[in-house]
Amino acid sequence: MTRARSRRTARRKIKRLIRKTLKIVCAVWDFIARHPAMLAMPLIIFLLVLTIQMHEFEKQVQAWDQEIRQQQEQIEELYDRQDPVEQTDMTDVYGCKSLYGTYDFPWNTMSQDWGSDQVTGFYYHEISEECKAAGGELPTIIQVYTYIVCEQNGVDYEMVFALIEQESRCRWDAEGDNGTSIGLMQVSEKWHMQRMEELGAYDLKNPYQNVLVGVNYLSEIQNDLRGTVPDEDLPYYTLAVYNYGKQGAKANLWDQGVVKYTYNTKIMDRAQQLKEEKKKAEEGCG
Question: N or C terminus: fewer CB in 10 A for the chain?
Answer without folding.
Answer: C
